[in-house]
């Protein structure tokens, strides 16, 4: 899924907590959270108060990140979420399973797909219609159809970079007895929060079985963007994110070398940002080291949004595109392999049928 916001104020769209959830999502860093008060009713609710300076009612009452007793808003850190240590670089789990007296509810991670209502699966829509509480990144919440938001008892959202805090919020609400859906664009298992949810559940001393934890898949950016340029991913393929917030750059470079020298098509997530130009440049250098400069590359900017742009270029042209508006954090790159070609303005990666059948 790709989301848009191409104003100067939102050019830097990377989360300091890691890659965007679907690999190509963005939001203005200056967006102000408007309604993030937790209503789950956990016993640890007295540790955090509303900020007297701002009046923002953004403090969690679920026991999430509340161990410091701070009077500051839970959206005050650089990641859009509070940390019990007072550090803007780390987020620590607050309440544990022992802080909740209620019979646990249910937690489900739901993938919204490309972003348009029609791109959501029937199962995802049904799961969200049944959820009492919905938790998610502000931009993703805004993508939900009115029938879903109006049917929920409560909706909790945080700006970019609140991954850990909002995931914990969702878990705490479920531990307090609510049926909760935590949402993300694309698929919950692609640079998203399904794994983080399980890690935090474990750290709280709870179990996935206790919360009847489930994952509802969605169409990830690789597939939705590939559909816009033809059929580039028909054979063996890999996905690599250029965000080095959670994976160091030497590891990313090693993976690029390994994928580029083999016959994989490659989907590149999070290719470029204002603070991270070198990664994109290094990626282009590695790809060109192993592949012909004429290799087709699909470039899909802001898929499914009003400012969507789709181009098919040659690999040799990719470095100069880093200086254009076409490549940013809302862009997904689809790099062909040695067999990929362009026909009728569409990328085609043969599956191998031509070696066994006449057609």
Automatic annotation (TrEMBL):
<dbReference type="Pfam" id="PF00590">
    <property type="entry name" value="TP_methylase"/>
</dbReference>
<feature type="compositionally biased region" description="Polar residues">
    <location>
        <begin position="1"/>
        <end position="12"/>
    </location>
</feature>
<dbReference type="InterPro" id="IPR014776">
    <property type="entry name" value="4pyrrole_Mease_sub2"/>
</dbReference>
<feature type="region of interest" description="Disordered">
    <location>
        <begin position="1"/>
        <end position="94"/>
    </location>
</feature>
<dbReference type="InterPro" id="IPR051810">
    <property type="entry name" value="Precorrin_MeTrfase"/>
</dbReference>
<dbReference type="InterPro" id="IPR014777">
    <property type="entry name" value="4pyrrole_Mease_sub1"/>
</dbReference>
<keyword id="KW-0949">S-adenosyl-L-methionine</keyword>
<comment type="pathway">
    <text>Cofactor biosynthesis; adenosylcobalamin biosynthesis.</text>
</comment>
<keyword id="KW-0808">Transferase</keyword>
<keyword id="KW-0489">Methyltransferase</keyword>
<dbReference type="InterPro" id="IPR000878">
    <property type="entry name" value="4pyrrol_Mease"/>
</dbReference>
<feature type="compositionally biased region" description="Polar residues">
    <location>
        <begin position="35"/>
        <end position="53"/>
    </location>
</feature>
<feature type="compositionally biased region" description="Low complexity">
    <location>
        <begin position="62"/>
        <end position="87"/>
    </location>
</feature>
<dbReference type="InterPro" id="IPR006363">
    <property type="entry name" value="Cbl_synth_CobJ/CibH_dom"/>
</dbReference>
<dbReference type="GO" id="GO:0032259">
    <property type="term" value="P:methylation"/>
</dbReference>
<feature type="domain" description="Tetrapyrrole methylase">
    <location>
        <begin position="106"/>
        <end position="318"/>
    </location>
</feature>
<dbReference type="InterPro" id="IPR035996">
    <property type="entry name" value="4pyrrol_Methylase_sf"/>
</dbReference>
<keyword id="KW-0169">Cobalamin biosynthesis</keyword>
<dbReference type="GO" id="GO:0009236">
    <property type="term" value="P:cobalamin biosynthetic process"/>
</dbReference>
<dbReference type="GO" id="GO:0030789">
    <property type="term" value="F:precorrin-3B C17-methyltransferase activity"/>
</dbReference>
<feature type="compositionally biased region" description="Low complexity">
    <location>
        <begin position="18"/>
        <end position="31"/>
    </location>
</feature>
<protein>
    <submittedName>
        <fullName>Precorrin-3B C(17)-methyltransferase</fullName>
        <ecNumber>2.1.1.131</ecNumber>
    </submittedName>
</protein>
